[in-house]
Amino acid sequence: MQLPALGPRALVAVGATVLALAVLPVAQAKPDTSGAGSRVAIGDSVMLGAKWNLLNRQDFTLVDAAVSRQAVTGPALLDGLGEALPTNVIVHLGTNGSYPLRTCKKLVKAAGPTRKVFLMTLKVPRLWEPINNEMLHACARAFPADPVHLVDWNWAASRHEEKWLYDDGVHLRPAGARAFARIINAAIAKAYPPVTTAPPTPVQLVTSPRFEAQMVNMGIIQAA
Q: I need a surface site. Which of 21, 35, 127, 157 has the fewest CB within 10 A?
């Protein structure tokens, strides 16, 4: 069967399609979140305000948050979970008083070397806020960056205080609870490096000798 004669405009259009198909697809990178669905959170009354936002939308197996909780209780809480402790551990402690560096280091070690620990900074208008936040930065620096990550809740909440926090400057309004959950989710996703997916195999184009000759004459492709 003979190919119908093609005009110059048709040949240009077909040639452009051929060139587009001939370009190899580019490999794409996307986060490897294969372990990001396994999560547990421990915290104080701030986290308690976002508990249902975390449980309902974030794939948490446990959100253990309590009013007036002291940071010193953190290591024992993680020890109590033992082998059941998930891959990702989110910690928001230090709202209610001092948070020694040794306690933070003990907490990270209690999580174990196979888990990622996300330490959240604090937004609390008390004398210990800057002291505890400086300690959290120091604690994160004391460990390799892959297992320990700092989540700067103080930075985010300070920029949306009227919308996110009640008048005490600490506890979460509904918008703040949603933001608290979003920030945790974003931090976990960021902690997983992208993986490159292989491009699909390019399609082999089949053309007739007459078609190729017409393309050569138009200057769209070069002769072999």
A: 127
